[in-house]
Amino acid sequence: MAHFVTGLIARRAALQAFAAEQGLPAPVALTDVLALLPLSQDALDQLLPQTAHEFYPGFNALSLDLARLLAAGSRRATLLYFETEYFGGEGTQGAAVFRDGELVFGPQSAELGPINNALALLGVKTVPPALDEFETVGLQRHRDNDAWLASGN
């Protein structure tokens, strides 16, 4: 099975405001408090002009320019950026957390761990029967950005 998702996670109201300011689709609820804003290639192109970007090692979409934009957006609320790229159980994930205009975690890319570590910074704790923070917030529910956007929840 594949899992290819790129997005932002933050408190629902803050992410709704960020999405509206940037002209992006409304975020999808993950929990009572947190929401996910899937970042499709179209959304990434809308956030940043079509120019050559320098990407962080291990990331497909997190560029220095996007990190600056997210740092600025984090002055009002903590923003967690993440991306997954798995196929047949093999692949990587990456995450970065921006708070108060600064990068406070990552960017970190590895086979496992960065997203759980970043979610923990948002205060997410594993709630059984979930095995980790990733499952606790329901990130396994959909395996690509289109499915998240279509779900509306």
Give the topology, please.
Elements (H helix, E strand, L loop, with lengths): L1 E10 H11 L5 E2 L4 E5 L2 H7 L16 H10 L5 E9 L2 E10 L2 E9 L3 H8 L11 H4 L8 H7 L2
Give an overview in words.
Helices cover 31% and strands 29% of the residues. The radius of gyration is 14 Å and the shape is globular. The chain starts with a strand and ends with a helix. It has 6 helices and 6 strands; from the N terminus they run βαββααβββααα. The longest helix has 11 residues. It has one domain. A 6-stranded antiparallel sheet has the order 2-3-1-4-5-6, sandwiched between helices. With 153 residues, the protein is α+β, with helices and mostly antiparallel strands.
The rounded Rg comes to: 14 Å
Fraction of helical residues: 25-40%
H/E element sequence: EHEEHHEEEHHH
Total number of β-strand segments? 6
Discrete helix count = 6
Which structural class is indicated by helix and strand composition? alpha+beta
Q: What is the multimeric organization of the chains shown?
A: single chain
- Uncertain runs with pLDDT below 50, 5 residues or more? none
Number of domains: 1
In whole angstroms, how far apart are the ends?
A: 22 Å
Strand order within the widest beta sheet: 2-3-1-4-5-6
Mean pLDDT: 91
Major β-sheet profile:
6 strands, antiparallel
Q: What global shape is seen?
A: globular
